[in-house]
Structure prediction request, 316 residues.
Amino acid sequence: MKLCVFVLPSLVFGLTPSTESPVTLRMKFDSLSNVFSSWQGGDYFRSPVTLNGETIYLVTNNNENVGFFSIDHNDKITIAHEGEITNKNQILQWYTGSTYDDTILTKTTNAVSNIEHYLLPIVPDSLYVTSSDSFVSMQKIEGTPHYYNEPYGVVENGCAPTSAAMLLSFYDRYTSMTNLIDGVLPLDHSENKTLVDQYIVELAELMNTDSIRGTSLAELTLALDDVFDSKNYNFGGILSYSYYSKCINTYHNPALVTLMVSSEMTGGLMHTTLGIGTENVRYVGNMIVARSGDYESPSDTYITTDRFHSVIYVAR
Prediction:
């Protein structure tokens, strides 16, 4: 049996067994256990530390840490992640955003606010998978690249260029837009770290990513506008979760999703990730399925739609 730092959770996070709303919280946890199989039969422990007003719960099963979830002041689950958590930074990335909004989301030359204006790229039907039972309804795009933020990646506060690299790599690999990238990037960052790092750095330079503040939404949209315009493609920015859902469920396309770092905007900081699916979980609600960007625990992360800020999609 593999032993980990959470055999005694209090050693790292100062955890105590949860006594808050045990019935309601247990029902939500049991529903999430239908999403994350390693949680089935496990338990959760509340950390005394709160992040932007949200309380963190670590999940353990057979003396192993198998993930975490967070609860806001309304007792609503905001984030859920399956996978070993070995340090706080794996959680902090969802609460200390590196994308910031210095202006209203820029409407650049080719950016449109209505997804119906353009045809989205045709993605192989085999990549779109769905499942449904009495607890969970899931829709997801498979085969999406998985690239990682720092410290595995080389761009500090580089969630925006890293996520954009995943999106561009996906289209370059699977669709007719094969001229987006010279050559083909691997699906996993570790398969050719040098090549993936180089491309993320190129995008970071194009976006004027700052090592302290990250990437502004204005610079992100302007940079992508340049990338797609140079290849005679279009893209759009949409301020609605319903359109993100449409990207996934109607057009079977992933999309760049910018999330608020907490249920309430904090200092304009956000976090950009690759959205690859949607999920409706009983007692929990609608969730965005997103790439974690974490090399140590690369499993997908589920985020409540309350955190949704904006989405960027690609059009032919």
In short: Residues 1-12, 104-112 have pLDDT under 50 and may be disordered.
